[in-house]
Amino acid sequence: MRAVLTLVLNIIWLVTAGFWLFLGYLAAGILAVIFIVTIPFAVASFRIGLYVLWPFGREVVDTGRSGGASTVVNVVWFLIAGLWLAIGHIGTAIAQAITIIGLPLAWANLKLIPVTCFPFGKEIVPSDRARMVPVTGR
After folding, report:
1. I want to staple 29 with a disulfide (CB 3.0 to 4.6 A). Which of 9, 45, 91, 106 is the partner?
2. How many Å apart are CA 82 and CA 2, to the nearest integer?
3. CA 14 to CA 69: how far, in whole Å?
4. Which residues in 14-53 are b (16+ Cβ under 10 Å) and which e?
5. SS3 for 54?
6. Which of 60-69, 80-89, 109-118 has the lowest mean pLDDT?
7. pTM
8. Most distant CA pair in the chain, distance
9. Using CA atoms, how far apart are residues 41 and 84, in angstroms rounded to an integer?
10. Cβ proximity of 68 and 121 under 8 Å
11. How far apart are CA 33 and CA 35, in angstroms?
């Protein structure tokens, strides 16, 4: 039953927000590839873009490996792409919240903003494995 619910949520998500958000992450990733130095940003953008395309059944967890360099890269990411992608999440959340059925999707959309703004030091794992991933540094 849980798998069916996850599938239905992902399909509704794909139609209402996932595809459009994915295109935003794809564009950000392509722009980052153009400048060779920003290829790590492209990798992060493509990784989050695939997550945003089909998010239910997966979760974002801290890797515990974030340090000073990760903080600096997250700040640069936020200024270049994270803020604009977060605005995309807010816009699609508003559109989803118009209907009662879309309210949980809008809430899920808003919950994606932290990983959108600060993706480095995070990992996307299946939901059943998320509880097994050790969280360090807290």
Report:
1. 45
2. 32
3. 34
4. bebbbeebbebbbebbeebeeeeebeebbebbbbbbebbb
5. coil
6. 60-69
7. 0.84
8. 46
9. 14
10. no
11. 5
